[in-house]
Every structure is written in C-alpha cells, then in structure tokens.
Amino acid sequence: MAFEDTLPEEEVQHRIETRVSLGHFMANILRAAGAEKADVQQSFAKHLCDTAKLLDGFLRSDGRIARMDYLPGKYWPAQRGRRFAFIDGGVANVALPGAAPLAIRVGAYLVRPGREGADREDFAVQMHFVDDLYDPAQDVYDNDFEDIAKLRDAARIIAEAGACRSLFEEAGDIDALLIQGPLINPVSPYGTPGFPAYTASASEKLCRQAGLSDRDRHFIPLYLRILRDLRDRGSIVAGVVERDGGGRRFIKNVLDQMVERGKLDNARRTRAENFLKKYSLSDTQLLDLILREGEYVLPLAINRQGGPDEQNKWPKKWENEIGQFPLALTTFLKPSENVQPLRVETFEGTASDDLLSLVLHTSRLLPRYGFPVGLDVVDRFAKVPDWMGRQIATGHKVNLLRKAFATDNEKVRDFSIRMLSASGRDWLYRPKI
Amino acid sequence: MTDWIKSNERRIGTVVGDASTDTYTFILKSFSAKLGDIVATPTDVPGHAGTYGAIIWGRVVGINRVNPFFPAEAAQELSEQDINLLDTVLSTTRDYLQAEVLILGATKNMDVTNLRLSPVTYPVKPSAGVFSPPAEAIRVLLTGGDNNQVKLRLGTLIGRKDVDVSLQANKIVSRHLAILAMTGGGKTVAARRVLRELTAINYPIVILDPHGDYLAFFEKRRELGGVDVKLFYPAIRVYGSDSGVIEELIAKMGHRLTDPQKDFFQTVVAQTNLEPGMTAERYIAELITTCGRLRDGGGNGGDRLNALTVNAVRRSLDFVRRALNSMQTNNERLMAQLKPKGYAFTELPDPQTSPDEIVRPGRISIIYLAGFDHLTQSAIASIVIEHLFAHRAKLTDRIAPFLTVIEEAHNFVPGRREGTEDTPSLATVRKVITEGRKFGTGLMLISQRPARLDETILSQCNSFLVLRLVNPKDKNFVRSVMENLSESDANILQTFGPGQGIVSGQAVRFPLLVDIDFDEDLVSEAIGDEDFVKKAKDWSPDPVREEIASIVDEVIPPEPPASPATKRAGKRAPLPDVTFNAGTRGGKPNGAGKRPRA
C-alpha cells in the first residue's frame, strides 16, 4: 500500500496478539468459530490486520489522525481559575414483588483547579426521580407502559441531560461540562406507540418550562428541547463513553468517505463491512489497533439517530422531531497505550482541541483506568450502593405486609406472605399439572 | 445532668456497620474526637423488667480516614509528573473518618454523680448517635463516684486537659506498678510524679538507684513539703542468713573454679568465722587467711591439700576483694563529686538490725548504687529487700508498710533469655512480688527494656504505666504480659510523646491514655546531663604530671630505641645444634612410637 507514515504490519500484528492475550477479541473469535473452519483464528488475525492497515493507511494519509500532547506540567497551571463540571447518573437496582421502583439520582461535581478552600469543589444531586412505575398516580410518567426497562432507561437519559441543563443555569460560569456516556442517545426505541409522556411536574423539572403540551412532554420532543438548549449555550459540553458498546457507526462513516474520495471501491467496501459485521468488530476495537498514545481521529459529525438507510425505522409519529436532533461530533481518543480509546461526543462547532486536551489530561490522572478522573469522582458520588437498594426493598416489604395485615381479608394476607417469601422462580409459581 | 447525651453540640458521630458487645465503629465528624478519647452512646438494654436506657462508654482506639474520591493511582501520577493536586480536577474534600471504639462498660444510671460501670450485655444500635461527654461526667466515670479512696494524681487524659487521671494509691503500694518506656519516654517523669504523690501522704519509700536518677529528691526536699530524704551508700555486710548470697557473689565474681577448687572453697567457708555484720571485704580477707591456714596444715585435712588448688582459690578471693574494693572506691568517688553540691551520704544502716532507719513514714531512702557492677548491685538489692521484707512478713510491725522502687529493673530481675536466672535479687523480688501484697511491701519496677524482664515477675504487677515503646520485642512482650492491652493500644505505644502513655490495671478503672504532669520544680539544678562535648573541648593535660614527666626525662633520659636487628636478636633464642641419627624419619628417633615386634 502506498500510504505514508502508516503503522508497520508487525506493529499491528503485535497489537492484535497483545489484545487477543488480554481477551479483547475472544468473544468475536468464539462467535465466528462456530461457523468457520479450524484455521478461523489465523484467518481472523490476518483479516483483522488487513482491515486495520487499510483504515490506518487511509486515516493517516488523509491527515485524519492527530496527536494531543500530554504536558501536565504546563496544562494544569494554565487551568487555574477555570471551572469544570462532571455529571453522571446513578440508578438503584431494586427488585420488588408487585412494584416497579424507579430511583434515579444525577450527581454533579464542580471543581475550580488552582483554588484552595471551601469553594474549590461542589458536589450536588442535581436531579432525582423516585417513583413506582406500577403506581397509577405516578410522579414521573403520566401513564404506565409494559416495558419497564425502557421507562427506566429513558428516565435516566433525560434526567442526565436535564441535570446538565439546570447546572448551567444554576452555576453559570462553567468552562466545560463532561457527562459520563453518550451526549446524544438514539431516541427511536422510546418512540414506540404507547410510550407515555412525562408528567407536567417532571417535565418542568427537566427543562424548567411550564405548560408544555402532552405531545411536547413526550421523551423525544422533551429530550430534543433540552439538547438544543444545551447546544445553544455554546459552552463545551461533551459525553465521554468508556464502555465499548459494539457500534460501528464511526468506521462506517470513514468507509463511506473513503469511497467518496475514490480511495476504495464499492465492492471492497462491502467486503470490509461484511468482515466487520461477521466478527462483530466495533469502532473501539479497530481504532484501538490503529491509534497510538495521545492520538485521536479528527471528529466526524455523526447522526446518532441513524443514517439515511435507517430512517425508515424511525417511528412515524416522531419523524419530524427525530430529524431535528443535533449531530454528535464524534472522535476517539486514546489516552495511553494500554487502554482502549474513549469515544468523545460533543455538539458541532465546539472547540475540540480544548475539550480533548481536558479529556486527555483528566484521563491520565488515572493512568491505569484511562478515564477522566472527574467522571470517576462523580460516578462514585452518584452511584446508588447495593445496600441502599436492599434497604429500600426491605422497607417496601415491611410496608406491604403491614398493610396486608391491617385488612381482614385472609386471602390478601396469605398472598402477601406467599409473594414476599418466594422468588419468581420458586416452586410455588411453577405450573400445576 | 444527662442533657449532654441528647445534645447536638456534643454529638460527634453515628454508629455504623456491625456492632458487638466489645467494639463498634462510627463515622466521626471532622475534628471532633481523637485517638484515646472517651465517648458515650445511649442505647436501650433488655433488663428483668423490660428495657431500660443505658449509656455505653468506650474509648476511641483507632481512626481511619478514607477518601474514596481520591484514587491511589492519581496520587502516583501527581508524584511522577510533579503536579500540584490543587491545580487539577481531583477532589480532596470528600474524606470521612471511621473511628473504632473499644467498649469499656455500661452505666445504667444516667445520673453522672454516680456512674458505676457494668459489663455490656447488649450491643449499641447502628445509627445511634455518639457523644463526647463533658469533663465532669468523665471525671465521675474514672473515679466511679467514690471519692473516699486516696488518689495519686498522675496527669490528664491525652487531649483533654480538663479531665484528671489519678491512680488508686492502695493498689499501687500493695499490688505493684510497672513503669515501662524506652529511653527518653518519660520513665523518670512518671516515677517522680507517683513518688511525689506518695510522699504527700507520707508513705515510706525505698529507692534502689543505680544511676543517681532520684538524688534530686534530696536537693528538692523542700519542694516536697519537707519530706525526710536520706541518701545511703551501700556497705556490703554479711550476716549468717545471707552468707549464701555473698558466697554466690564471690563465686560469680571470681575466677571460674574447678570442681576440686569449689570443694576447697566450701571447706574454707565452713572453717571461717563469720561475725554477723562484718563487711564483705573483711569477710573475704578472713577467707583468704583461712586458705593460708589450711594450706599450711592448720586445718582439717590440710595435709592432703594440693598447693595449686589452694592458690587458685586464694587468687580468686583476692580478685573479688580487689574488685569490691575498686567498686566501693568508684562509689565513693562519685559521692565525693556530689558532696560540694550539698549532697550528704551516709552508710546504709543494717537492714536486719536497723530497718526502721531505712523505712519510716515520711521518709525516702535512696540507696545509691552507682559504681558497682550489676551483679554486686543485685546482691545488695537482694540483701536489703530480703531483710526488709522479713521484718514485714514476721508481722512484728517493726517497720511500716513501704514501697520499693527498682530502677533499671531488667538488671535486677532479668528474664530467662538473659541467661542470668541466678541473679541474687531475682528470687527475692519474685518472693516479694508474690507475697508482698499481704504484708504491704509493694514494688515499683521501672525498665527501658521490658523484653529483658522476668515474665513471671512482670505479670505479677497489677498496674502498668507504659510510655513510649518502639522496639517490637518490647511491645510484643508488654502485650503478652498485660491482659487488658488491646492490639490497637499496643500499636499506638510508639506514637507517644515524652510523658505520654497508657495506664491500665487495678489502679485505674479502665485503660486510659494519659499525659503525665511534668514536675518541673523537682528537676535537679545541681545534677544534669553532662555536656561532654564542652568537657572534651575544655580538657587539658594535668600540668603537674607533665612537669614531673619532663623532669624525669631530663634526669633519666629515655633509652634510644633498639634497632630492628637488635630487636630480632633479642627475641630469638639461639638455635640448638641438632644431629639426626641415621634412619630417623619425621623427626622421631628410629622406632619411636612403634610397637615392638612380638
């Protein structure tokens, strides 16, 4: 291949071997092994190496890989007096018979580097929701829905976004805000028929606007409204994704651009895409093989709601709103050699160098973990510990039993005991012959 | 009176985690309590007639400070990159304090004028408040509300100057006290404090002082309220009852004797007249005379004596006599140095015949043992303690109950590992410490090397005052001997400053961390730490000696040094002429060393 300054093949192979030894590709190999011949592992490594070389060659020759220098001695003193915020949501894991508890809190950590004293750091629970999703008189949603997990997910996503928005309003002088997870989430899954709108009070809490119509209180328009508000502030707001979710949207965009520029023919593009699909290779896995320490791919604006080929899957009712969602300016940054690259998402028009420098320098404060330390701090702050979930469950059971025994109905009492003393897979619940 | 147990101002934390009847942990409010502080927690306890409110009292024995928001790997990066933490986004403020409490007991009655501790039979409630009691409540707790007992003020609780710590006098004078600390830990400060309090109640005290640490009591007797302080130098006298000790001393101090020599020595002892009360030196001279008499055939079996055996025993006795003489001279020389400073020494009265001159209410008798070696000091201590104890044990009431202070106790009661089990004073002290409490002959053992002390003797001490200890052997030994010293208590021993320590045992109601009062007015002005650096700087040769040397050199000039050749010639004897017989091999005459042929 004629690309200059690309990674030598030996280096890519060495990286693959290192990652295989760390178990990074085991799931991919095992998944493919069932349908392949005995030499599957060997061919996997070869194909992977070829694909990585192909991408590396294109990205480097096109000047799409840049480097951010790690200079903590210069960087940190230059941040004195600035104010950074970090946001993360915690969800309680509570399993209760006869109830669907929702307990979410979004924590915020604000810090002014270089400052000493009580006003250097602020910790706050910026947003919280506690409710029973089975309860007819709900505080969060104005109706019930069969998919409880989706209700919880949507509540967490919108609570985090709402917390970012309210934090800007309350704290004001924030130079950069990082949120743990994607900045913009796909919304189609929450647009299915019957998905309830938020109550008036919850909507007002989320976007600080009263009197929204029923339609505007639905997750999709409400989330869109909050994201727009955030974008329009012009501040640095970014989502940092630690976990490899398995998506290939970024690489697909790169392949598209390669075809557009005549660097790749359509047939080979399809073969490369099929290979990625066959082995379930993700953006993170591939870019981990390409990027060196401190390197990142120049950001691409990606529509998190899906490309043109996916728009037919958007719920008809919300097509207009989904089409208006901001694009996520996305990049992958590798903070240090032994950690996978982080996905960083921000709004278009954000000064990415300032942002990426912050992500790199805060990540390097945790050299082994390789994740922005401010997000690690707020994660610990917001996390709902297991013991708290257990206490909630115990309290709920006690309350239920008290209410049952307060009635004269023996059947209610028996059923309550049976329900609380047995798990869902207990023999009591097995079908009778 | 019990409002404090509900007061938010006094609330310093909340109980968390698993609580037992021995310990509990609580989250401590920042800067609200320290290690060693007494804390209280209200709780309901089941009783015969339903539950009742009680206060669980405890002592903070450990505090952990945790900041889960500050990861260790971040600290590593800060160090390696030389970054100032405050310049970064790292958090420093979310730390919390988790304190561990050792439960001391419970009081049923909330009335602080009468707080009697009883065992805790029911754990404290997680989520219960933890309170810092007012000084008055702790004071009453420490005394149990019993103000009739005689107390010896020791100092204050560490970090709480408003709470006094006292020892029960009766438990100290009859049931023995051990003061243990490394050098500079404050042993002398502690001992001085206890002794001052005892002099205030006129309790008789006898101090065995190997280094003169307690001579200041004489100098400062006015500050002690005019107490009668006597300084004694020992005169080793021999009585029938303790002749064995002297014989043992002679046997140990002298040359190693062979079995026939030992037999002869016993014969000499048996045939020597012992006048009770004669000095050891004179007694040894008598033994030497007996040796000569026996050698010359003047005694039983003298004819059969081997001259070599007799001379060996004589030489050994003479060696001991000279050694004793030399030590006495040293002791006298040391005393002479102190005389100009106003110190007046008198010979130790005979403890057998005049014990009341040593032990008397309102008197401190200091036996100054400096200049003698450990063995001799031990022999002296053995004789004195044995006789004084005998007077008490006979119940004749010839002398009052008294307290004996043994400084450098590891030299008087060494442990088995020291290989000195037959140290003369060991058996005596063992007897006194075991039976002493019946007869009012208490001991105060003071040592800087507890691990070198006899374990049985130390464990007989019912009260301990342990100050700074760093040596792991010493700490482990103390922990093995002290029943109520917790692991966390043992761990803090090395952190004590001078004069800080832990007091436990029968003299106090429960172990307490104490800051011992420093009696500055009792510090000697005449005797202090010598400035050897200055002394070396100011030193100059004796001018008289120099003058004499120069005169001698002038009158009798020194001989010129011999040349090397002369030296060699002078050292080597001329070689004898050697002739070898034919057939001689290997330097042996022909046939030598061979068996003749049959």
Automatic annotation (TrEMBL), chain A:
Source species, domain of life: Bacteria
Ranges where the NurA domain occurs: 82-384
Protein name: DNA double-strand break repair nuclease NurA
InterPro entries found in the cross-reference section: NurA_domain
A Pfam family it matches: NurA
Family matches, as SMART domains: NurA
Automatic annotation (TrEMBL), chain B:
Span of domain Helicase HerA central: 153-387
Family annotation (InterPro entries): HerA-like (IPR008571), HerA_central (IPR002789), P-loop_NTPase (IPR027417)
Region spans: Disordered: 556-598
MF terms in GO: ATP binding
Keyword terms, alphabetized: ATP-binding, Nucleotide-binding
Listed name of the protein: ATP-binding protein
Protein's organism: Microvirga terricola
